[in-house]
Amino acid sequence: MKHVSILVPKGNAILSNVVGPFKVLMAVNQFLKQTRTREDNFFDIHLVGLENDYSLYDGLFSIHCDSTIADIEKTDLVLIPALRPDKLDEDLEHNKDFIPWILHQRNVHNAEVASMCMGAFVLAQTGLIDGKQCATHWAGMELFKKMFPKVHLVSNKIVTDEDGIYSSGGAFSFLNLMLHLVEKYCGRGTAIYISKFFEIDMDRVDQNQFAIFQGQKDHDDVAIKEAQKYIESNVNDKISVEKLAKKYAISSRNFVRRFKKATQNTPLEYIQRVKIEAAKRSLESTEQNVNEVMYQVGYADQKAFRTVFKKYAGISPVAYKTKYNRSRVNFERPTTW
Q: Do residues 160 and 233 both lie within one domain?
């Protein structure tokens, strides 16, 4: 039997990240009993908090933890739910007592640890992922890079798995993490059943197509902020790093250094991401073909545009348009059934 501790953070925890994993693991237990693979539960599931009772979402929901961290001497798997981003600093402070407990379970009992979405911020505070890969919600990536520069943040992966430490991308991608863990612990057949039962797409490996690039502007470098505004206002132009540095009277080397420090992106990456974000919006909302969109955002080479688009969107421009263009979605009732 594998002891699982689903943490319930104090403050603004995401309720779906508590209930969802609980339901998945309960379904695994039921499936293994029905197929007579086991007579007892495989997962011994506990909701673990700093306190036993919480009020969430301004009192709309309440949750009861069957255990506190003081009650759990040993666990095999720690699941860290997401925190809501609007009060992240406050909630990290409220939940700091989880950190030594997680480290004790990992270092003394060799527990595996997994974070979901913005729960990566709690995981990173432990230091367990310094030098390791980690995923989080795309909306929190720039802040995460700033707070935890020793962590290898991956923007594209839905799930990371390294030395018994796991993480998942944004929002409901925690379901793909749960499938990954189910397959690891209970086999491919069980994971396939769970994917069908909960209708979870097992083939999701990349979250870039969901990301919306907003640019990191929470810094005090005025010249770099002006450069960001210029890039975003001139998306149709071909912009070089040398041109930008000269425009703001900064040497190219110093400009690149300051830009990367302020935005967590090199100037070239920032230019590419702004252009691809503009291309995505056009592909979603207009009837322009891919070539027209390509020229509109300042690219002339189809191969180069496709390569950069796929790097930041996770799929090709044609596939993106097919999937997200509003005019291609038919909401009309079919004439035959």
A: no
